[in-house]
Amino acid sequence: MSANRPRLRSFSHHCRERYGQAIGKIPLDLGHPCPNRERGGCLFCRPASFTPLSLRPSDSLDQQIRRGKRLLLKGRFHHYLAYFQQETPTALPTARLIPELARILADPACLGTILSTRPDAIADDLPAGLADLVRRCGKTCLVELGLQSIHERSLCLLNRNHSLPDFLAALAKLRAVDGLEVGVHLILGIPGETEADMLATVRTVGALPIQALKLHHLQVIADTPLQDLYCQGRVPVFTRELYLELLLRLLPHIPSHITLHRLWSTAHPGLLVAPQWHCLAGELSRQLRQHMEARGIWQGQAVDGRNGSAEEEQSFQQG
Is the dihedral of CA 161, 167, 173, 174 positive or negative? Predict the structure, then answer.
């Protein structure tokens, strides 16, 4: 057991541990629309709400990278991960996707890629293609599957048009090859879900062979079907205080080896309807860590077989 383990395994901690330095992310867009749009799209989704100002989809990938290095890395980071967060990148045929990724991974400053995608967009030939690519280039590939919830009623409400079995099938495909890492994206606060429902989702996902997790609180974005429900009073949203309290109860059930890439949503203020917390992510992180320290809470506390002794409590590093 490390004498300096963190209270939570953040992305920044993971990068310092793996690479010995902080690593940036450059969001990229392959320009291929999400296939779920043809089925009405997700209830909450409006791509403009999470598109970085640095990203111009009309630019080529080379232009996107150059602009990202200038505006996002800003000299703070010497290396980056190519982050395909926009749309559904793996909806591209594997024969088209792999060459695009190979060209980006050829950049010495790029240490790997993150593909944020849907469980029903993992083609049968994709895992082997990705595994072969990372073997050849000696870099990393994290495939982040948007599950959102294990509960079928929630997936139907969100119009996700995939099921938990679809997710498990995609996970099995990705785990069948060597060299790939898998992450999961969950939404907390889906209308109709209780805290027990959310805890069940977190526990179920935490027990799976994954390396990363991204948690979001539900946000209501302008001009989405979710906004219509919100205006009808059918979508409760978290206050900042209630969401932090929820995280304090959920984090002990997330195994400590899982890297937490994100714990809250960040949407463009001009498009965000609710909740409006008027608080930067850095301040949220500071408050969460303060609460964890004050209450003796750490990630994995309930599932890692630790007993919460005074010696363990003293072994945590700050930050």
Answer: positive
Count of CB atoms within 10 A of residue 297's CB? 20
3-state secondary structure of 232: coil
Structure tokens that stand for 306 in this block: 């630790």
Cα 123 from Cα 116, distance rounded (Å): 14
Question: Region 35-41: what's the mean pLDDT?
Answer: 93
pLDDT in the model for residue 56: 77
Distance between first and last Cα of the chain: 18
Asked if omega into 209 is within 30° of 0 (cis), the reply is no
Nearest to 42 by CA among 124, 118, 138: 118
The residues that bridge with 251 in the sheet, in sequence order, are: none
Q: What CA–CA distance (Å, rounded) separates 55 from 57? A: 6
d(CA 300, CA 319): 17
| Phi then psi dihedrals of residue 93, to 5 deg | -55, 145
Rounded-to-integer distance, Cα 167 and Cα 121, Å: 10
Q: Which residues contact 150 (CB under 8 A, 6 or more apart)?
A: 164, 200, 201, 204, 205
For residue 258, the 8-state DSSP code is S
For residue 248, give the amino acid letter.
L
Q: Cite the beta strand spans of the chain per DSSP E.
A: 24-27, 80-84, 110-117, 140-148, 181-188, 212-217, 220-221, 259-262, 272-274
* Among 118, 115, 119, CA closest to 141: 115
Compute φ and ψ for 140, nearest 5 degrees: -110, 160
Taking a C-beta distance cutoff of 8 angstroms, is the pair 264, 281 a contact? yes
Element (H, E) at 284: helix 281-295
Structure confidence by residue, pLDDT tens digits, 42-89: 999 988 777 777 777 678 999 999 999 998 888 889 999 999 988 899
Residue 122's region, left for phi above 0, alpha for psi from -120 to 50, else beta, is beta
The alpha carbon of residue 239 and the mean position of all alpha carbons in its chain are separated, in whole angstroms, by: 21
